[in-house]
Amino acid sequence: MSMNLSLLPADEKNRIELDKQASFIVWKIKQSKAGPDSIDAQLKQLSKTHERECFEQSVEKYKRIMGV
Question: I want to staple 28 with a disulfide (CB 3.0 to 4.6 A). Which of 9, 18, 34, 61 is the partner?
């Protein structure tokens, strides 16, 4: 089943983007291309509390998955 992501509401698109960013940052940490401070730097850029919570949950999820 395919899904057109452009048809999603803006908040859902934003959640997907935050999840992608979290995945990429954890991957960079695992590959030693970035340090844990990159997570804090990304969190500082997020202005809304629910965005920060979503990002932190995704980071924890990918740390578990990637064994970081």
Answer: 34
